[in-house]
């Protein structure tokens, strides 16, 4: 695995080539972070939304190319961007096949975790990225494949650091605090960094890192 120094060098080179200078500042948890998935039907609904397929294909705008998806190859996670709905459908099919082996019980063992990844960018560069999509004001960031994968690596490492530090989140239950620390994780079923739906909050830009965990309790 590349060192973070190497990752940062890649980002600096890609900025010089024209990638938007979006950089991770920090990640945050909140009352939105944990949603229990109580049935296979609900799991499939969540997956089709995150993959922007099926009933949720209307959310697959041009910026969906920026999303970083986890795919399973021989039970090993591969992180990649997708170009077509067929690729995202194939990810869904792979997950369904893997579920038959995993056999979750949906009795408190499957959760969707949502973490907000806040990014740093100058106001001048931010204004250049502002546009209106379907009547809503949003942002589109021009980034190369190498830059997006490096940005995802920063988000993933920040999430791991929170787990290693054993951070306590105010208002979280004992079970939720355990999930923050990756306690009792049986498997990571799916993960995506949703860069197609970047939002602005208090002059801060953020995207959501969504992970579906299967726990053993």
Layout of helices and strands:
Elements: H1 4-16, E1 23-28, E2 34-36, H2 40-51, E3 68-73, E4 76-80, H3 85-102, E5 110-120, H4 123-128, E6 130-133, E7 136-139, H5 145-165, H6 174-180, E8 185-201, E9 204-215
Antiparallel strand pairs: 1-5, 2-5, 3-4, 3-8, 5-9, 6-7, 8-9
Core attributes:
globular; 6 helices; two-stranded antiparallel ribbon; 9 strands; single chain
Poorly predicted segments: none
Q: Provide a count of the helices.
A: 6
Whole-Å distance between the termini? 31 Å
Number of DSSP E strands? 9
Q: Write the H/E string, N to C.
A: HEEHEEHEHEEHHEE
> Assembly state here?
single chain
What is the gyration radius calculated from CA atoms? 17 Å
Structural class by secondary-structure content: alpha+beta
Look at the structure and give the mean pLDDT: 92
Shape, please? globular
Largest sheet: 7 strands, antiparallel
Describe the overall structure.
Helices cover 35% and strands 31% of the residues. The chain is built from six helices and nine strands. It has helices at 4-16, 40-51, 85-102, 123-128, 145-165, 174-180; strands spanning 23-28, 34-36, 68-73, 76-80, 110-120, 130-133, 136-139, 185-201, 204-215. The longest helix is centred in the C-terminal third of the chain and has 21 residues, at 145-165. The protein is globular, with a radius of gyration of 17 Å.
